[in-house]
Amino acid sequence: MSGIVVGRADEIPAGGRKIVVPFRGRAGIGIFNIGGRFYALRNICPHKRGPLCTGEVAGRGVAQTPPSVGASHIDYERDGQILRCPWHAWQFDIASGQCLVDPTVRVKTYPVLVDGDDLIVVVDISDLSRER
Amino acid sequence: MAVIDKLEQIHIGKHGAAPIAAPGWTAKSRDRVKLVDCDVHHNFREASELLPYLPRFYQEHLLDQGLHLPGAGYANTPFRRTRPDLKDPQLQERDFNFSLEFTQKELLDRWGIDFALLTGPPVFYAYAGLPDPDWAAALCTAFNDWTIDKWLGRDARIINAILVAPNDPALAVREIHRLVHREDTVAVMMPMQTPLPFGNRAYHPIWEACAEHDLPVVSHIGGASPGSTPTPVGFPSYYMEARMTRPSVASAQAASLIVEGVFERFPNLKFAMTEVQQMWAVPLMWHMDVDWKAIGDQTPWLKRLPSEYFREHIRIGSQPMHEPPQTEQVYQMLEMLHADETLIFCSDFPHFDWNDPVTVLPRLDERTHRRIFAQNALDMLRISDAMIERACA
After folding, report:
1. Do B293 and A67 touch (CB under 8 A)?
2. In chain B, what are the domain boundaries?
3. Domain enclosing residue A16, as ranges
4. Which of A60, A65, A102 sits opposite B265 (nearest CB)?
5. B14 near A CB under 8 A
6. Angstroms from A17 CA to nearest CA on chain B
7. In angstroms, what separates the C-alpha of A124 from chain B's closest C-alpha?
8. Which H or E element spans position A126?
9. Which of A5, B125, B266, B341 could pair covalently with B211 via S-S, beta carbons 3.0-4.6 A apart?
10. Which of B294, B300, B301 sits opposite A88 (nearest CB)?
C-alpha cells in the first residue's frame, strides 16, 4: 500500500470534491468532503464504466408507503451523501461505495488520511494499474 | 396437508408467484384441479333480459334509449363475434353463448374444464366508458344479478368474476361488498380501458376492497372512454389494427399499477390481464428494471425491482397465444415470461380467436403445464376446498 499526496486538505471544502489521477492510474480517484470527513472512490462506475465521480451529489427521497387519496408523505434523506453516476444515474453511498440500486454492486473506496495540510489517499499501486 | 397460512404466503421472496390463498385451502385439494379457464364469455340474448334487475328509473332508461354503450366500431366484430362452427345457421345471432347448457356442452364437458370463470360479453364492457356513472353502475349490478339468476348455482364448475365500473369507484366498492359474500364470487372484472390508468389513486378504494376480501382483479381488454382514442396515436381504421394496440394498453396499466405503488399498498392483491397477448410483459419487466435503477428514487415507495412486483402480482391470460415460426421459440418465450408464475389459461370461449387447452401450447414439462393450466389460477382466484370438492366430484 502506498500513500499518495493528492493535494491540500483545505482545497476541498465541505460538500466539495477533487478528482485526481495518481501515478499510473487512468480514470482517477474522486475525493469528497462530506461534513469535514474525506472519502475517496474509484472514478469508474461498476455498471458501465462511466466517470462516476463527476456525477451529482445529493440525497434521496424516501417514502414508507405509496401516495394515495389524501395521504402522501415523502421525506428526503442523506443529503450530500449520495453520488449519482452521470451516465445512467445509478446512485452510490459515498462513504461505503455501496450501490443503492443493486445490492451486489459496490465501487472501490480508498482510505483518506489528513497529515498536517496534506491530503493522502492510500492505494495499492498495482490495483491502480488494473483500472484499464 | 396443513392449511396454508395466508400471512406466511405474502412476500415469499424475489421469485414471486407466492400463492396467496384464501383461508381453508389445502394443497391436496388443489391438486385435484387440472384445468381452469379464466376467460369464458357469457352473454344475454337481448338487453331486455336485464330489465328485471334494473331499478325502475333505469328500466325506463333502457326501454327508451337501449344500452347506448359507447363504441369505436370494432369490438370483436368478425364472424358475428363467435366461432362459426358453434352457430345455429337458423339463428342470425350476432353473439353467442347465451346459456349455461351451451357452455356445459361445448366447453366444460368437451374439454374437461374443472373451473370456468364467467367474464361477460366484451361489447358490454363499454359500460366503463359511459358518461353517466350511475347508469354504468346500474348496468353492472343488473348484469351481475342476471348472471346469478341464469348461470350460477347450477354447475359447481361455473365461477364468477363480478363486473364493476371504474366511473365512480365508490359505487364499484359498493358492488363488491354487495356480492362478496357469495361463494361463487371469486374475482372482480374491470374492463382494461379506463379513463385513468389503474394505478391512479382514484381507483385505490376498489383495489383495497378486492385485497380486503382476497379477490383478484381480472381485467379484460375493452371499455374505452367516450370521445377518447383507443390508442395513444389516435383511431385505428380496422379491427386487426385495433387488436394490435392491446399490448400497449396492458403495458400502460401494468406499469401504472406497479409504479404508483398499488402492490406496495395492497400486498395480497393479484391482478390478471386477459386477451392482451403475452410477450409485451417481457420488455416491460426488463425496461422497468433498468429504469428503476436510474430513476426509481423519484418513486421511493418502490422497494423492489418492478419485475418482482410483476411476477408476484400480475397474471397474464394465455389467449390469444403467440404462434412463433419455430416451436423452440415458444419455450424461450415462456421462459422469458416466467410463464410458470405469470401465465393463466384462458380460452376466450366462444369467440373466433379462442384457444383450446390442448393445442394452445406445445408439450410442456409437468410442473409448468400444471402451473399454467391450473395452479396459477387457483393461487389467484378465491376458490375454497369445498368448491373444489363439488367441482371435481
Report:
1. no
2. 7-391
3. 2-129
4. A65
5. no
6. 23
7. 31
8. helix A125-129
9. B266
10. B294
Phi and psi, residue B67, nearest 5° = -70, -30
* pLDDT tens digit sequence for B139-177: 999 999 999 999 999 999 999 999 999 999 999 999 999
B85 has a chain A CB within 8 A of its CB: no
Secondary structure (DSSP) of B1-16: -PPPPTGGGSS--TT-
ipTM of the complex: 0.90
| Confidence (pTM) | 0.90
Cell numbers for A86, please give them: 452521470
Q: Which residues of chain B have a CB within 8 Å of the CB of A59? A: none
Contact B291, B237 (CB under 8 A): no
Q: CATH no. for residue A68?
A: 2.102.10.10
pLDDT at B329 over 60: yes
Which CATH architecture describes the domain B7-391? Answer: Alpha-Beta Barrel (3.20)
User: How many Cα neighbours within 13 Å face the side chain of B247?
Assistant: 15
Q: What average pLDDT does the structure give for chain B?
A: 88
A126 part of contact set with chain B, CB < 8 Å: no
Is A66 within 8 Å of chain B by CB? Answer: yes
User: How many domains does the structure of chain A reveal?
Assistant: 1
Q: Which of B261, B264, B297 sits opposite A91 (nearest CB)?
A: B297
Closest C-alpha among A80, A74, A82 to residue A100: A82
